[in-house]
Fold this sequence. Notes:
This protein has 468 residues and is an alpha+beta fold.
Amino acid sequence: MKDKPKNKKYRIALSLALIITLYSVYLMIPGGKAFAFKAVAGIENQRSSRVLTLKEAYILAARRNGTIKANKESYYQSTLLKWSAFSMLLPNIDLTYKDQRMHSNVQSSPSSGGTGNIFAFLYPDYEYSFTLDQPLLKLGALPAYGAAENTVAQAKMNLNNVSAATLYNVAASYYTVLNDISLINADTKTYNEAKSHLELTEAKLKAGLAIITDVLQAKSQFYAAKQELISAKNSLKSAKANLAAILGISRRFKVIKPAEPVIKKALLKKYIFLAYKNNPGLRSLRYAQKAANNETQYYETQYIPQINFQASYSALSNNHFIPGGSINYWTAGAVLTMPLFQGGTRIISIEKARSAANQAMYNMVQSKRNLKAQVVSDFYNIQNLKYEVTALEHEEKFASKNYMLVEEEYKAGVATSVDVVTALAQLTAARHNLLAANLSYYKSVLNLKRLIGSFKRKLISLTVDKFN
């Protein structure tokens, strides 16, 4: 009778060995191999997800983002304006060829066997001419060329402004994805803690140490934690989709935590000075004002006389209609055009250009004020968020210790289920508040870096943009 337990253990071990052997044989058959291959392939596909660093995300945005590409085309179109201004000083050369026939309408006689009109073509005549019109004095080309150069500079600043804003969106979205991953990890901890407490409460209910209300409260906390975990996972999917849309890639990628965004310690007036100097949006307004001033000068030069050199050469087939004349002749001379009055077109154009210059000036003044206010706001907001993150870190630690203590007290029968649920809710709120404050801190730092032109310099350092 004493040998029966040993025989039972031996039979269990033998059964396990037989099951393992049969499974190995199953994997050796074609179907089993296919199943094993599919399982390994699935694991390899999960491992082969693209790992995307923040720098690689910057490069992808600079190369693939549609908004940046559209502004590149706008910048390229603006470069063509310089040629239109330069062409005002180039000559106009024309070659004209004319071929014609003179004819007479002759009435046919009845003796010729028919009636009607006969067209008789006489005096074949053709002509070609070569003309040249070269501007000698056209001062309007100078301000037009200056306006074109300013337009090119403004388009380039707009490109840099859009590119810097896009890189900021890349960084903000990247850190949002990281924050959502941390949120999932935090909610997973909360979910496991709520699940553990529910199992403990149900066990105490069976032992007669808890009441049904305790179980219902634990279940309510468990399902709330589960819902928050599902919401965090959906938020991660949305954040990855947003980042993928900016980069022009699929949503199947992984991110790794980069270095925390920081700014150099400096006085507030230093950041305001850097914003005035390097902010692309503010610089584009300066070029807009210059372009409007050059447009005003262009319309003003329309009152100045223009002098053109004109020459032409003509050749005729005959001199039938030019008695005693030559069939080949050329002319050359200077033409002075003195504008006296052309209605109110130029006056209206000048006033419109001056008004546009004033508008650009007012926009620049207001933009400088708004830029200064944003720099000041972000500067103090960063300091406040830094202190807030430090305080929330301590709060999260205290909430975690408090939950662990209350949970131990509940196991010992000193605390109630309400105490555990309340402590877990406080811990969950502390975790969420810490992650939200941390993300707000990162975004504030990134926004200040955008205002002072850091993302513009980063775009140039990537060496992927031929326009910089």
